[in-house]
Amino acid sequence: MTDHIEDLISAYIDYELTEEERKLVEEHLEQCLECSALRNDLLAIQNQIFTSLRPIEAPVSLEDKVITELKMKVSTSRTRLRKWFLVPILTVLVLFVIVAIFSNSILFNLSSILVKFGFNMIYAIGNVLGAEPLMVLSMAVIALVIIITSGLSIKHLLKSKVIQGDSI
Ligand SMILES: [Zn+2]
């Protein structure tokens, strides 16, 4: 009796052997109870896997549905993203208007605040640093509000991203 062919049985079952190897395995299986028992076991396992993993036919429209759904998700998440980036920017703008009113400076011209935004920012910082403690305190509160608002919008962004990821 030649050596057992355990290593080849799995490949034999999966039709991965050459014609020559196949013949050798079949000859051996006819004479060897041990190897033919192993082949039967492997076939049983394979059958079990195939029956438990019965393929399900996907509906023809599935691909189109998935693509449409994904396109919709991408566009809605983009608008949501834009909207939430506006919140901190608008907050900063509103706060600068408030600072302009409180500081009574001619440099803070409300009509040109958007055009002179960068310019005004430098003056606002300068004004606040030179002003009384109440001004510094109010600026600290404003900064805190900006940080909290930004934090909340980032949190919202992350949350909406996670929900999106889950549903895909
Ligand atoms: Zn054998």
TrEMBL record:
Record flagged with keyword Zinc-finger: no
InterPro entries: Anti_sigma_zinc_sf, Znf_put
All copies of domain Putative zinc-finger, residue ranges: 4-35
Keyword annotations: Membrane, Transmembrane, Transmembrane helix
Transmembrane segments: 85-114, 134-154
Origin: domain of life: Bacteria
The keyword Disulfide bond appears for this protein: no
One Pfam short name: zf-HC2
Family to which this protein belongs: Belongs to the zinc-associated anti-sigma factor (ZAS) superfamily. Anti-sigma-W factor family.
Name the record gives this protein: Anti-sigma-W factor RsiW
